[in-house]
Write a structure and sequence with these properties.
Blueprint: H1 15-31, H2 36-88
Length: 89
């Protein structure tokens, strides 16, 4: 297998890749017909992927909240400056 054909490790996946792999894992488990060992390994991988996706979503949510807070502060200062300018007129 060439280096370019390697599947990235769970930590190297972006959100979309991890979610797609999780979806494939769930489908494989739902189809059944797997040996107990294989099903257990897939389940474990699925749980790791689900946790990874959850962590990435939480991180994105935190970043969005920080951006909104910073933007809100800027907008509040701009509104205060605008009110002060109107009062001066």
């Amino acid at each position: 297998m060439a280096d370019t054909d390697k599947v990235p490790a769970d930590n190297d996946l972006n959100f979309e890749q991890a979610l797609n792999r999780l979806d494939e894992t769930v489908k494989a488990l739902e189809e059944g017909g797997l040996a107990l060992t294989d099903a257990t390994q897939l389940y474990e991988e699925g749980m790791k992927l689900a946790r990874r996706c959850s962590e990435m979503l939480a991180t994105a949510e935190l970043r969005i909240n920080r951006i909104q807070t910073a933007f809100g502060e800027q907008m509040r200062f701009m509104a205060e400056d605008s009110d002060e300018q109107e009062d001066e007129l």
